[in-house]
């Protein structure tokens, strides 16, 4: 039986659980939250949708009882505060680090073989927190941001070119924030280099909009996005459970790839049953390398903030 736990039954977690259920990605989905009754209620609501949308996946809720999560194949951690207007993702670090640490301890105790996907922000540094807490191999503790950032970029391009979003293939790298590294050189429309179809100014405008794509939604809604983030996390779960070996940008600790050590950054990987099966190393040009270095410096600074919190 395939079993997935989603911790945090808020906007992103509940959306992820819903996608996992209606697309029958896992046979059992356990939703956990610290707020009394919320996870149970949302799991029941998703289950009551099963006869309407015609799916078999079971959804179960739990208020902080991790025994129900035992032997999960994959655990998605979405617990933590989202941004409010005017906040950066990094402003969330102190509160969310404590939450991610305690949740990871509980997760590993009951599912020592699970692959853990982090969604909580600041994403790259929360992946660091979960990785050191879990003591699992780096290939099994990974962060979701790149699929979302790439999806935003692809959606904006599809709109500008008036083509189906399905036709846009793209990859982004770097940290989940304003220093993310879009790679127009690796962007195609059904195999056609995007630069042949769009002028440079418009492409740059789309890249800039993508970098601040999360903030655009926070400003509109007063909190951060959930439909695309929840679906993106579910897509990673699917690639793992079905051993699809899909190529996605995923946050992982770099161990020398791209000449970077000991930093958690988004890079293209092959995602399969063992988590990250391979980190793909692109041949970046000098400009792209410089952008990646800026991203690395920023993530490292926030990692140091976490180290100082932990030292307190
Ligand atoms: N990586 C990404 O691309 C991405 C995208 C969107 C949101 N996020 C992040 O995901 C997180 C969740 O966002 P959201 O919109 O779902 O927020 P939300 O407030 O709707 O939900 C968070 C949930 O976590 C729960 N929670 C808090 N502490 C907990 C604990 N110790 N154990 C279990 N549950 C706990 C809360 O009760 C709440 O229900 C935020 O940190 C947000 O910034 C990341």
From TrEMBL:
The UniProt record lists the keyword NAD: yes
Active-site residues, record numbering mapped to chain: 176
UniProt-listed InterPro entries: L-lactate/malate_DH (IPR001557), Lactate/malate_DH_C (IPR022383), Lactate/malate_DH_N (IPR001236), Lactate_DH/Glyco_Ohase_4_C (IPR015955), Malate_DH_type3 (IPR011275), NAD(P)-bd_dom_sf (IPR036291)
Positions that bind substrate: 83, 89, 121, 152
EC numbers: 1.1.1.37
Domain Lactate/malate dehydrogenase N-terminal: 2-143
Positions bound to NAD(+): 8-13, 33, 96, 119-121
Keywords from the named record: NAD, Oxidoreductase, Tricarboxylic acid cycle
Record family assignment: Belongs to the LDH/MDH superfamily. MDH type 3 family.
Function: Catalyzes the reversible oxidation of malate to oxaloacetate.
Protein name according to UniProt: Malate dehydrogenase
Species the sequence originates in: Echinicola pacifica
């Amino acid at each position: 039986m395939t079993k997935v736990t989603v911790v945090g039954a808020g906007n992103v977690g509940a959306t992820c659980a819903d996608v996992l259920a209606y697309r029958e990605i896992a046979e059992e989905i356990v939703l956990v939250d610290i707020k009394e009754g919320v996870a149970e209620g949302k799991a029941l609501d998703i289950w009551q949708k099963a006869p309407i949308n015609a799916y078999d996946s079971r959804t179960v809720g739990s208020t902080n009882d991790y025994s129900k999560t035992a032997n999960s194949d994959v655990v998605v951690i979405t617990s933590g505060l989202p941004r409010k207007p005017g906040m950066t993702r990094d402003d969330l670090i102190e509160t969310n680090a404590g939450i991610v640490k305690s949740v990871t301890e509980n997760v590993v105790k009951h599912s020592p073989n699970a692959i853990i996907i982090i969604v909580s922000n600041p994403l790259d540094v929360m992946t660091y927190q979960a990785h050191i807490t879990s003591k699992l191999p780096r290939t099994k503790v990974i962060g979701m941001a790149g699929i979302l950032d790439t999806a935003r970029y692809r959606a904006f391009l599809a709109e500008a070119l008036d083509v189906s979003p399905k036709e846009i293939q793209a990859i982004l790298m770097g940290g989940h924030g304003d220093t993310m590294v879009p790679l127009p050189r690796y962007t195609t429309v059904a195999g056609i280099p995007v630069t042949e179809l769009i002028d440079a100014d418009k492409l740059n405008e789309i890249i800039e909009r993508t970098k601040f794509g999360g903030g655009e939604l926070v400003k509109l809604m007063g909190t951060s996005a959930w439909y695309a983030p929840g679906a993106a996390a579910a897509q990673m779960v699917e690639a793992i459970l079905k051993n699809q070996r899909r190529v996605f940008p995923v946050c992982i600790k770099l161990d020398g790839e791209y000449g970077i050590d000991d930093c958690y950054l988004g890079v293209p990987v092959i995602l399969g049953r063992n988590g990250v099966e391979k980190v793909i190393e692109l041949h970046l040009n000098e400009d792209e390398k410089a952008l990646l270095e800026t991203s690395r410096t920023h993530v490292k600074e926030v990692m140091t903030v976490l180290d100082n919190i932990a030292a307190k």
